[in-house]
Amino acid sequence: MEAALPPLPGSTPDEMFRNQKTEKVERHKIGALFSMTGAVPNSAWLEGCVTCDDEGFIKTGSDLSKEDLELAKWSVRRFPYLLETSLPGVFAVGDVRGGNVKRVASAVGEGSIAVSLVHQVLAE
Ligand SMILES: Cc1cc2nc3c(=O)[nH]c(=O)nc-3n(C[C@H](O)[C@H](O)[C@H](O)COP(=O)(O)OP(=O)(O)OC[C@H]3O[C@@H](n4cnc5c(N)ncnc54)[C@H](O)[C@@H]3O)c2cc1C
């Protein structure tokens, strides 16, 4: 399915839905509906600071292309570490990071990895 089909106000799950992309109203006979919420990163304030992907998730490590690094004026001789953003020494972890699997355990795990990478940068 290309887009979410939220039920129209007052309808039940097996009734009318509106395709948010096409605006087409469709009728579906379904028994359950899974609603995915919280998938939009609040990262607009980072514009011009670190490189984000088209959906606003922060790019880190090998997700940063050569072009990304040139545009961001990457200023150190090495490539970014895992979890490091386009700003040397600044790391991103958790849901706001592109490629993160959007789970509590991964956010916590990435945070602990980032701490050791911060030590590595400070030791350079
Ligand atoms: C409905 C739902 C159900 C989920 N169920 C599960 C589950 O069952 N199991 C599981 O493992 N994961 C689940 N997740 C995912 C899990 O919640 C996230 O992966 C996890 O919380 C990510 O942690 P985080 O610290 O990266 O982000 P968050 O927990 O989102 O924390 C980010 C914090 O930053 C704050 N913030 C945002 N912008 C700013 C700003 N500009 N200034 C200051 N603070 C700011 C936010 O208010 C928030 O407190 C679920 C998520 C949702 C939305």
A few lines on this structure:
The chain contains two helices and two strands. It has 124 residues and is mainly alpha-helical. A two-stranded antiparallel sheet has the order 1-2.
Task: Describe the structure in your own words.
The chain is mainly alpha-helical. The protein folds into two domains: 35 residues, no CATH class; 80 residues, 3-Layer(bba) Sandwich (FAD/NAD(P)-binding domain). 21% of the residues lie in helices and 5% in strands. It is built from two helices and two strands. Strands 1-2 form a two-stranded antiparallel sheet. β1 and β2 form a beta hairpin. The protein is elongated and about 60 Å long. It binds flavin-adenine dinucleotide. The site of flavin-adenine dinucleotide has 11 residues, from α2. Flavin-adenine dinucleotide binds next to α2.
Per-chain topology:
Blueprint: E1 16-18, E2 25-27, H1 66-71, H2 104-123
Antiparallel strand pairs: 1-2
Bound molecules: flavin-adenine dinucleotide.
Flavin-adenine dinucleotide (FAD) binds at residues 37-38, 42, 45, 94-95, 102-105, 107.
CATH class of the largest domain: Alpha Beta
Radius of gyration: 20 Å
Walk across the major sheet and give the strand order: 1-2
- According to CATH, what is the topology of the largest domain? FAD/NAD(P)-binding domain
Indicate the CATH architecture of the largest domain.
3-Layer(bba) Sandwich
The major pleated sheet works out as: 2 strands, antiparallel
Features of the shown structure:
binds flavin-adenine dinucleotide, 124 residues, 2 helices, elongated, FAD/NAD(P)-binding domain, mainly alpha, single chain
